[in-house]
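Project outcomes to date are best conveyed with an example. Our students and postdoctoral researchers have been running inverse folding experiments weekly, and each run begins with a structure described purely in tokens. The record below, which covers 111 residues, was selected by the lab manager from last quarter's runs and is presented without edits.
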């Protein structure tokens, strides 16, 4: 089993990117690893294949994605989270991720 498919991997990377004690280079590496994992394995085109990530883990990523992205100050991390949102939005909207579920900053454009 690869580490990138282990339970909790996506959540751990998201936490790494948001923890205040983590140095910026480690956050950038975490955001890059998160982007790669989600880009490669968020959606499986084979309906008969097992899901790579559990529904609970995907929900946790979706629920924290926007607030995590808005809180970032490093451009590489912001860009990684924009790419992540694009992939998730492409595969999950509107059935599993709706704009109504996003925080007010996304709906209104005001912080």
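After processing, the design step wrote out the following sequence:
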């Amino acid at each position: 089993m690869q580490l990138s498919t282990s339970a909790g991997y996506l959540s751990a990377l998201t936490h790494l990117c948001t923890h205040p004690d983590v140095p910026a280079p480690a956050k950038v590496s975490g955001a890059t690893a998160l982007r790669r994992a989600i880009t490669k394995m968020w959606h499986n085109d084979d309906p008969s294949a097992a899901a790579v990530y559990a529904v609970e883990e995907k929900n946790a990523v979706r629920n924290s994605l926007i607030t995590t992205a808005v809180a970032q100050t490093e451009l590489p991390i912001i860009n990684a989270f924009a790419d992540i949102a694009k992939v998730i939005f492409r595969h999950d909207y509107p059935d599993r991720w709706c704009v109504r579920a996003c925080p007010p900053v996304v709906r209104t454009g005001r912080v």
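Residues 3-108 form one domain. The helical segments are 9-18, 24-41, 55-70, 75-92, 104-108. The training component of this project remains on track.
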